[in-house]
Amino acid sequence: MLRTRRDFLGAALAATAGSAPTSRYRIGITPNTMGGWEKDWELAFREAREMGYRWMESFNHYFTDYFDQPGELQKKLDQIGVGLITISNGRGMETRFEEPARHEEIYEDHLRLVRFIKRFGCKHLKINMGRRRPEGTTEEDLKHMAAAAGELGRRISDEGVKFAIHAHMWNQFEDRREIDFMMRNTDPKHVWFVLDTGHITLAGIDPVELARTLGHRIVEFHLKDVKPEHRGGAKQRLDRPDMMKDPPFLPLGAGGVDYPALKAHLDKIAWEGWLTLELDSSPFRPPKESARISKEYIERTLGLQV
Fold first, then answer.
1. CATH topology for 26-300?
2. Is the per-residue pLDDT at 14 higher than 50?
3. Which of 47, 69, 90, 163 has the fewest CB atoms within 10 Å, measured from its CB?
4. Residue 230 burial (CB count, 10 A)
């Protein structure tokens, strides 16, 4: 018996997913793209749905007005015909995990968000950490970050939700040294990982190799491409560019990420989870067109049904 709207949408997705090997993958999109989608989440969700996407991921600041009236948000989602993958942390929330004095506020903010997204059937919380300081991330920072992530992950696990940290260029949690430290010093039962192929590549890491290393500790992939010259991991760290003048992230198929090799590995280990398209900006075409290009790549090259 289907008990919730999310169960219904999940069954519908499964029915259209094609052959059994591809049904382990759930395809979604984060439609907060600069260039037309960044200010109006309803427009973004509607246009992404028009392009064929059924599952959406977004950020908390778009939905704070609904925290005390989740039913109103559910009505709007129903009208558009989409479900939620998760809602990430962001503006208005404490994210300085490296500062112990802020940890209690971090726990309070994130648990409130978890209790909100649970109402929509979300199974994991994806989070970013604070913007990178000029001096970078020290060993002492990492110890505090791991302690806070571990405790928050434990509390979120008690809510029946997975807690997943997202390595992001230009944030305190960015590069391979930091990823390795956080993964070694947190409990895999409570702290999971979101692998963003674009950010990982620009951090000088081969996303396929990192996927082999972390395996089933990855709960979700963010799919974005980069320039071909960065394939296998950028050779030099890129300072944050102007996303609308010189976008570092591109629609799928640009050639900087070896997606066929990534999918072959995930097939081999029978990985299950979310493959979530994300494009931070679309300055040269409307965001829905970039979403269409990526959808065609997912379906034609990777053989997955959006």
1. TIM Barrel (3.20.20)
2. no
3. 69
4. 21
